[in-house]
Amino acid sequence: MITSSIALLDFLLETREHTETICKPLQIEDYVVQPIEDVSPPKWHLGHTTWFFEDFILKKFKDDYQVYDDHFAFVFNSYYESMGARVVRTDRGNLSRPTVDQVYAYRKYVTNALTALLEENDTDELAQLIEIGIHHEKQHQELLLTDIKYILGNNPLLPTYSSEFQEFKLNPNPAEWLSIPEGIYEIGHKGDGFSYDNELGLHKVYLNSFEISSRLVTNSEYIQFIEAGGYESVLLWHSEGWAWINDNAIKAPLYWHKNDNYYEYYGLNGLQKLNLEAPVTHISYYEAFAYAQWKGLRLPTEFEWEVAQSQFDWGERWEWTESAYLPYPNYTKAPGALGEYNGKFMVSQKTLRGGSVATSNYHTRPTYRNFFHPQLRWQFTGLRLAR
Amino acid sequence: MITSSIALLDFLLETREHTETICKPLQIEDYVVQPIEDVSPPKWHLGHTTWFFEDFILKKFKDDYQVYDDHFAFVFNSYYESMGARVVRTDRGNLSRPTVDQVYAYRKYVTNALTALLEENDTDELAQLIEIGIHHEKQHQELLLTDIKYILGNNPLLPTYSSEFQEFKLNPNPAEWLSIPEGIYEIGHKGDGFSYDNELGLHKVYLNSFEISSRLVTNSEYIQFIEAGGYESVLLWHSEGWAWINDNAIKAPLYWHKNDNYYEYYGLNGLQKLNLEAPVTHISYYEAFAYAQWKGLRLPTEFEWEVAQSQFDWGERWEWTESAYLPYPNYTKAPGALGEYNGKFMVSQKTLRGGSVATSNYHTRPTYRNFFHPQLRWQFTGLRLAR
Amino acid sequence: MITSSIALLDFLLETREHTETICKPLQIEDYVVQPIEDVSPPKWHLGHTTWFFEDFILKKFKDDYQVYDDHFAFVFNSYYESMGARVVRTDRGNLSRPTVDQVYAYRKYVTNALTALLEENDTDELAQLIEIGIHHEKQHQELLLTDIKYILGNNPLLPTYSSEFQEFKLNPNPAEWLSIPEGIYEIGHKGDGFSYDNELGLHKVYLNSFEISSRLVTNSEYIQFIEAGGYESVLLWHSEGWAWINDNAIKAPLYWHKNDNYYEYYGLNGLQKLNLEAPVTHISYYEAFAYAQWKGLRLPTEFEWEVAQSQFDWGERWEWTESAYLPYPNYTKAPGALGEYNGKFMVSQKTLRGGSVATSNYHTRPTYRNFFHPQLRWQFTGLRLAR
Amino acid sequence: MITSSIALLDFLLETREHTETICKPLQIEDYVVQPIEDVSPPKWHLGHTTWFFEDFILKKFKDDYQVYDDHFAFVFNSYYESMGARVVRTDRGNLSRPTVDQVYAYRKYVTNALTALLEENDTDELAQLIEIGIHHEKQHQELLLTDIKYILGNNPLLPTYSSEFQEFKLNPNPAEWLSIPEGIYEIGHKGDGFSYDNELGLHKVYLNSFEISSRLVTNSEYIQFIEAGGYESVLLWHSEGWAWINDNAIKAPLYWHKNDNYYEYYGLNGLQKLNLEAPVTHISYYEAFAYAQWKGLRLPTEFEWEVAQSQFDWGERWEWTESAYLPYPNYTKAPGALGEYNGKFMVSQKTLRGGSVATSNYHTRPTYRNFFHPQLRWQFTGLRLAR
């Protein structure tokens, strides 16, 4: 819990500003498009994170609050069914208006109103909601950056986002197996710090002894899988994974371009030769699983990961686990619309642990649970083996 | 045929400029989106009409011509299969790059190159191709304007394109039936003026005597059809028209908004009360047909229309005819890629005659044949009865 | 018009019996399946032609008529929207009940009731409706046979329908061009004989002089088109035809099986080597058109065909024409539900002329207009050239 | 493990016969259809269970084995990608051949060959494979019965399968909460008896204390959920569950027919008034979850269920659990094609525990793990609450 409203205000302002910093390299046109359903236009992220503050906080805490524009709730609501009608997700890229300038003006208006509100109200209730709003915006910062990558990286001109952006740092240490003994372990968030409801419900799990790799699988290792015919070996794949690679003609991770003798890779710093020692990324759960099958190994569960994580470096790639994204024992969702935040997605998705080069600071932690459908690849996903 | 290359150059420059004038009221964001497959982003029209000149003329007539950007052929080719790979139609709205500024620079570069070319080459062959390019661009000017209307008119903010734009002028004359006697008539384009290949092949048709209305059907008349239950009366509709209105929950023309007691209409000059005396527009062929059935009348054929057209005013609405879009006797398509212009669409579409408030000057004529699939409504279509 | 009710009864009974004769070679299982939407289960044809008599005639003319089973109207109505709810077309193959035995019992019950009715009522009104019912059933006889061919010919076991069935007879005469002079011709049905509403409205058309082939295109000729790369030459195809062959990986007519050195063909008499001199069949309009383009020729219009037909043999293959299926001048559809018979399909389809080896006797004539969507191939379609 | 080959032969023959007994009430037509992708034609189950014995056993153990029909592997292979090409799942209902008689002859041929084989070979290896084949067939017996229910229960004639079939027995005891203390429990199959690979890997889990209901939720209780607006309350549903009920207009369990004042229910014994005290069935996981949410309770995990199951009656309804269907620790799949049996489905599905009135004898046990996608309802699913 943030202890003072001044610190909270700083945290808020810094977060609001960082969102806009991420967009600095963009052209106006880049803010508008939605090449696939999972990717939202940058403009939409800018507006949606703002609407969240307006709708859940300003309308509630300021009696005389003047909504910036009545249409914006319709345009920028994402999925809060209980908050009224909204633009269907697949239509986000069809909206040229409001313009980017209008959205920035909307951001400024709401940030100013939040600042004024925080100066006159220092209740815990407000502080808690502001904190949720900040973390909500940080979560969208990661999506914003990965959505920008998708928009630019699927454009035939392959424009560079920023030549300074580093998607990985090379790890000089060799991979080793870390051993964790059998036993009862505690899982879940504890302490005062911020967490989402899906991390709460501290509880015990029983783990068999296992070993987990100290390093992520690298591009070089993944190429061996490709060259050994991994994408053509049906027995390595889940039934729906096999259908997915065949229906979509998948032969390599996303953003890989095969040339005669080598692979190129589109990174936020542009198209370049694939770095063989970098951790493989932009793979689906199906691919992570098939790779592990091919090695005769497996993915860790999210509990194994949480128990072992202090013994290895993490944070460059979101790591697919074998666990399904399910409620912890005694999970209870928040009352009202905020209760839609996490619980409604707890079916048919896999849990990922860790964080990525696109994750904002203060946004991940050892108990953080990310989740995606098993075929999705546009995040900086990765793969760590266990046995 | 344009008789001098100076006149041709003027015609070219005026046409190139007019395209840009149409875009003047747009925000950059408006240039980018593609809300439905049939609508292209304005940016794409600007680039495609330019690519057409570059690919069919500059590359052919200027030996040392330097292509502006190698990627643009891929981005701006529309459907000329024989001219190589291209962005699939449904992906046009996913492209944020090239930017609008880059597209305008591309236009300038190509217009300048065409100007220089025309100053040094006055062959008939070049003049003919330039003329095709001009008419191609004029054709896209109409699509550009109707696509802009779709983009703005389907945005929840309903922005106005231009408060001065008039979509109709009121016709003070009452409707009358014009009688045309039975006999043999000549159909098709004659003379030196420009026409497309699909108008050529002057030929005779035999027409029974018929009557055709001097006026288009009005909004007021169309409301009677709606209120009489036209959209719920299966026997008025083609089988596939009935499926279409039901699958899409169609209850009125496009851009109509039903309020408690009246209809509002989104026009290029903004949302306003529907003018009852204006000609009905934005209807599909299915709706035009069902209306005629309900009146116990019919649509004219395109031949009847061509024979009768000198006796009535036309040009505000493209008029659906009962005719399918088919080749005239002795139709021959142009050799090479230009042969893809018209002939390849001569199946499953209906012919429309006339022109519309969005049609550029010098672009329509009594023999002009427009064509669309029967369900399309985003053009300024209309309806004239015959019997 | 049939002149006596005895002759009419004979015609009816013979027709009813012939439908069942067509089904003689079937196993019960063959009656049930619907491999594609366009193909109906044989059981459905047996029931639907019976329901037509029950619903349009028996219920109208017999006051005390006892409907055989109340559910059958729901099961066997095809598309008469005005006659109430019905099983959607794509679900016909999901119905195991009523059983084949029940459907035959239903047929017998209705045929007996019709016999009794004809013995007590000799009005013209009844006779006309019976005649429509007979021709409706004959029309379904052709579909029944071609649907059976599809069901058996797409089964991996490729069972033979009847080893005696001859799909063609060899024509010993060489192809010649028949010349028809320019002029005004009369089109449409005349005289007392039966015709559908879509053939009526005798009217004049003006034809340019043209030539038409005395023979259908043969398999041997069509193979030349394939071997010359016809299916890979985009400029020969309509835009939607090109999409269709590519989306469906079409490389040859339906029922052709390519072996190393030759084609096999599945006919109603089983799988065998393709007869090179037989007329090509089971081609779409798109393929017919592309073949003609490749030859530098064209398809005749339906008017040209009708005017020339007395000078050549026809009746083995339905012949694609260049004409769209549209109403003749002064076309009026029958009142009430029978009006749904033809008119509602007069959009987006092509006209075929002639008849086929699957056409029942007395069912085609020089003015008969068949119609299908341009991609359909499961009928015995064919191709005659004009120029 | 079955201890003698005579006992094994008896078990085999009894199983083979029971499959055919299930089909006794069918008409031939009922064997053929596939109304939805998840439902296979009864004929296909008869053939597929036979092909399994032929392909995995007879071809392997009998050198001179004569395959019954070479086409049948293509027709009756289900999903064993490693065993070669096969009819795609959605096409199973398009196959009228082989006929039902041929399939029964095939069954007899293979059963006889298996009998002869067992008489001459008493190796453990054979016995184990036969046992798998028996359990495979028992698994299909349940699908066969529920597929038959779907085929008949979705036919507009609603034919009865068997008037003697009882889908439930009334439970006279009131519901109570059973308490299980916190602690470490062992999960998984032990002992010599048959089990599938997905039950193996005996392992410990740590459970919090919990309570589980001694009874399944009844129709009467479920009606309260419906009448309280459960299907209209977005906050009770998963995001994809909400989309599913709305896209499919789901308002009640499958096979419920709403009348003016009460519900009717289609059971294998025909359509009748819904028994209010019977356990609710034919619900999706989404509905089970929403019901529990509405009660402020939850579903048990599969581990809780396994630990508590000895304290309550079960076996009438497969019970949805909150658990995802995932591999147990140290899960290893069988080598070769048999390895495709379970593991390839371990993503995106939910685990069900228990058994149902359609489950064959000896086929379920406390450790048995059934699994389906969360929207499926055609099995006899049910719902037990926990807290």
From TrEMBL, chains A, B, C, D:
<dbReference type="InterPro" id="IPR016187">
    <property type="entry name" value="CTDL_fold"/>
</dbReference>
<keyword id="KW-0560">Oxidoreductase</keyword>
<feature type="domain" description="Sulfatase-modifying factor enzyme-like">
    <location>
        <begin position="315"/>
        <end position="387"/>
    </location>
</feature>
<dbReference type="InterPro" id="IPR024775">
    <property type="entry name" value="DinB-like"/>
</dbReference>
<keyword id="KW-0408">Iron</keyword>
<dbReference type="InterPro" id="IPR042095">
    <property type="entry name" value="SUMF_sf"/>
</dbReference>
<dbReference type="InterPro" id="IPR017806">
    <property type="entry name" value="EgtB"/>
</dbReference>
<dbReference type="GO" id="GO:0052699">
    <property type="term" value="P:ergothioneine biosynthetic process"/>
</dbReference>
<dbReference type="Pfam" id="PF12867">
    <property type="entry name" value="DinB_2"/>
</dbReference>
<dbReference type="InterPro" id="IPR005532">
    <property type="entry name" value="SUMF_dom"/>
</dbReference>
<feature type="domain" description="Sulfatase-modifying factor enzyme-like">
    <location>
        <begin position="175"/>
        <end position="309"/>
    </location>
</feature>
<dbReference type="Pfam" id="PF03781">
    <property type="entry name" value="FGE-sulfatase"/>
</dbReference>
<dbReference type="InterPro" id="IPR051043">
    <property type="entry name" value="Sulfatase_Mod_Factor_Kinase"/>
</dbReference>
<feature type="domain" description="DinB-like">
    <location>
        <begin position="14"/>
        <end position="139"/>
    </location>
</feature>
<comment type="pathway">
    <text>Amino-acid biosynthesis; ergothioneine biosynthesis.</text>
</comment>
<protein>
    <submittedName>
        <fullName>Ergothioneine biosynthesis protein EgtB</fullName>
    </submittedName>
</protein>
<dbReference type="InterPro" id="IPR034660">
    <property type="entry name" value="DinB/YfiT-like"/>
</dbReference>
